[in-house]
Write a structure and sequence with these properties.
The structure holds 2 protein chains of 2 kinds.
Chain A: E1 11-14, E2 26-32, E3 35-42, H1 50-55, H2 59-67, H3 74-89, H4 95-123, H5 127-148, E4 157-158, E5 161-162, H6 168-194, H7 196-202, H8 210-215, H9 220-224, H10 232-235, H11 256-279, E6 297-305, E7 308-316, E8 322-328, H12 330-342, H13 350-356, H14 383-398
Chain B: H1 2-39, H2 49-59, H3 70-88, H4 105-126, H5 130-161, H6 166-174, H7 178-181, H8 183-196, H9 208-211, H10 221-246, H11 253-273, H12 279-308
Helix pairs in contact in B: 1-10, 1-11, 2-10, 3-4, 3-10, 4-5, 5-8, 5-12, 8-10, 10-11
Classes of the chains: A alpha+beta, B mainly alpha.
Chain lengths: 399, 309
């Protein structure tokens, strides 16, 4: 994903291993003194072959596989997969299940945004905010654990519904937790828009105009901070978002401060939706039956992950395994914006701009697909050739 | 015989003094880290952690990277620590009278304290590593921004005491709390100390989310241990100087502990409050506000002394 060729002399490499990065990615910033004059990104250090892996597993196994694409937004991946499979199978999960899916998704968004708040504060050297926001995040983690039994990969979904119910006692516990979280979010919003020293690091940094954001295809809070009204929950409501409509949070400024403000204001929106769901949870079944073998055909699904639009494509071939699974995560769209907005800023602002999109590296790592497969050159191998090469390679190094 | 005894005693005294200073420095580093941790809602390190870190680093292999002047690479940490330790001889640490004293030793001490920063900058510039080079540039840039205001802030009490000898100023300040008459000087001295020690929010030279460990990125083992010890020693000296000049002196070990630890608490609070300043913001802060404020105060002090007192 090179945007331009790096030829100047003083290049500061960030990654694949670097304290600012929590996952492997490689960035090269050409600097003139402290000013960044050119930027380059290379991804693909954590490719895990999940799409290929899903082809060898049946739909139920693949559900758990896709949940592990991202450690932070695991539920939304499983939800997207389950919704796509249900679409392909022509069934629909019962309303109560859909509402619980949204409930967990919004709780997950709270956890993800609190986590991001901490990480972004840490990148600016504001470790106190980092520690405090991560402490408060424990509340929502505890809620998720009490609901689903897990803190990270909740595995709330099954094909055709959800695994667990929400009773009144749990609802009260969630309401109590939300009250605390909302209070804290108000406090953090106050800090983010009023703390002068912090504003020096965020205001006017990494500004992206609405036009730029649209051209580069930015998604999620990154785009909404540049006043691009783009939110799948509003554009194409899935699961129970038709019954529980979302108010889109927009900001016109497009800088890092705006991204802070948008994400924190989304927390209030999450709290509102969760309360609404808890108050009006539709009665009924939790699951519906989904056939083990899915018909031939294709289905796509778009959902709104905490980082932006998440896209799923499944092609069924009549068996119990997907013929092809394709996932496009939001970070891949947003990486270009880092490269574009970084130029002209100081080196010290780069971590803020980079973390401003809430990057998730291993989610978006993918294979390169060579278009012209008929032209046989040495860089191209068949599956059989690759296998043979691998065997010979390891035989060679063992000697 | 008598001379030999004196020499042996002096050397023994110096070794004991150094050892005690190391332990004091490590203890203060622990207090700082622990207070910062408590303010940030963390548990913080155990009491022996700084000492354990130093022992571990000393036991580790020291890697001299390619492309450096190895004599300089090994020598700079020693110089830095030696500078700090020498400065300690002129300062009334723990309420004990300084070992050496002569008119003008205040200037010498402040220069010796800068030696650590200079050595760190040189150490970064000496290596080929790009993070080190950026870190070294920032270290030296920061040195030029806080050094002048810090020195001017230290001169405030000295001008009133009409002496540039630390022990004389300390004696003069023992009965007067200069923090009341020169509050700006106190503030600038304290914040200048934070800049000197590269504590947050002035930690741009070693901002690890940008440039890993700044100038010291290539250092491991002994070199890193010595630099860290140097910083700890400088922390103690800096706190002692500020307490002695501005907080009514450090007449005895108890007062020394109370006053320096109170200062450390303030430092920890300041460290936890702010986001990291960019290097241009640091320079701007010091030259636009720090230096000007302290100059105004110096002017007022001068005028008062000349025409009223």
């Amino acid at each position: 994903m090179a945007t331009s060729k790096v030829s100047e002399t003083f290049v500061v490499p960030i990654g694949p291993q670097h304290p600012a990065l929590k996952e492997p990615g490689h960035f090269e910033f050409t600097v003139d003194g402290e000013i960044v004059t050119n930027a380059y990104v290379r991804l693909g250090y954590a490719h895990r072959g999940i799409e290929k892996g899903a082809e060898g597993r049946n739909y139920i196994q693949s559900l758990y596989l896709t949940e592990r694409i991202c450690g932070i937004c695991s539920h939304i991946h499983a939800t997207a997969f389950a919704l796509t499979v249900e679409k392909l199978a022509g069934v629909e999960a019962p309303p109560r299940a859909q509402a619980i899916r949204v409930l967990v998704a919004e709780l997950e968004r709270i956890h993800s945004h609190f986590l991001w708040l901490g990480v972004a504060a840490h990148e600016s050297g504001f470790d106190t905010l980092f520690m405090y926001s991560w402490r408060d995040r424990e509340t929502v983690m505890d809620i998720l654990e009490s609901l689903t039994g897990n803190r990270v990969n909740y595995s709330a979904n099954v094909l055709g519904g959800v695994k667990f119910n929400v009773d009144n006692e749990q609802a009260d516990a969630i309401r109590k937790g939300l009250e605390f979280l909302e209070k804290r979010a108000h406090h953090y919003l106050d800090v983010v828009i009023n703390e002068a020293m912090f504003l020096q690091r965020t205001r006017g940094i990494g500004t992206m105009t609405r036009n730029q954001a649209e051209v580069m295809g930015a998604v999620g809070p990154t785009a909404r901070a540049s006043n691009v009204p783009r939110d799948v929950r509003v554009e194409a409501p899935y699961a129970a978002y038709k019954e529980y409509p979302i108010n889109m949070v927009l900001d016109t400024r497009g800088d890092v401060e705006a991204r802070f403000v948008v994400r924190i204001k989304e927390l209030f929106e999450c709290c509102r939706i969760i309360r609404q769901i808890l108050d009006t949870l539709p009665p009924g079944e939790l699951t519906t039956r989904v056939p083990r073998k899915l018909p031939e055909g294709e289905a796509v699904m778009r959902v709104e992950a905490p980082r932006g639009e998440l896209f799923y494509f499944i092609r069924g071939n009549g068996s119990d395994k997907p013929d092809r699974l394709k996932v496009r995560t939001p970070s891949i769209n947003n990486f270009t914006t880092v490269i574009k907005t970084a130029v002209g800023h100081q080196l010290a602002d780069i971590p803020m701009i980079l973390s401003g999109i809430d990057p998730c590296f291993s989610c978006n790592d993918r294979m390169v697909h060579i278009q012209n497969i008929h032209k046989h050159d040495e860089n191209w191998m068949t599956w059989e050739e690759l296998r043979r090469y691998g065997i010979e390679y390891y035989r060679r190094i063992r000697k | 015989m008598n001379i030999t005894m004196t020499i042996i005693l002096t050397i023994l005294g110096l070794i004991l003094f150094t050892a005690a200073l190391f332990l004091l420095g490590l203890a203060y580093e622990w207090v700082n880290r622990k207070l910062l941790a408590l303010l940030q809602n963390r548990v913080g390190p155990r009491w022996f952690q700084p000492l354990a870190d130093i022992i571990k680093l000393l036991a580790k292999e020291e890697i001299v990277p390619k492309g450096v002047d190895s004599r300089l690479f090994i020598g700079l940490p020693i110089f830095a620590l030696a500078g700090g330790l020498t400065a300690a001889l002129y300062v009334p640490i723990a309420g004990i009278a300084p070992a050496f004293s002569f008119p003008g030793d205040l200037i010498v001490t402040i220069y010796l304290l800068s030696l650590l920063t200079m050595c760190m900058g040189l150490a970064g510039a000496n290596t080929m590593d790009r993070f080190s080079l950026v870190g070294a540039t920032r270290t030296l840039t920061q040195l030029f921004s806080y050094e002048a205001p810090f020195m001017l802030a230290m001169l405030g009490p000295a001008i009133v005491a009409k002496s540039w000898q630390i022990s004389v100023v300390a004696d003069y300040a023992a009965s007067r709390w200069f923090i009341l008459t020169q509050p700006i000087g106190f503030l600038v001295a304290l914040i200048g100390l934070m800049g000197k020690l590269e504590l947050p929010p002035f930690d741009a030279p070693e901002a690890h989310t940008e440039i890993v460990a700044g100038a010291l990125t290539e250092y491991s083992g002994r070199g890193l241990a010595l630099f860290r010890l140097g910083k700890d020693v400088e922390l103690v000296i800096g706190l002692t100087l500020v307490a002695a000049f501005y907080l009514g002196g450090v007449a005895n070990p108890l007062w020394f502990l109370v006053k320096t630890l109170a200062l450390l608490l303030v430092l920890a609070g300041l460290q936890s409050l702010f986001a990291r300043l960019r290097i241009d913001q640091t320079v701007g802060l010091w030259w636009r506000f720090g230096t000007l404020l302290v100059l105004v105060q110096l002017l007022v002090t001068f005028l008062l002394q000349r025409f009223i007192l």
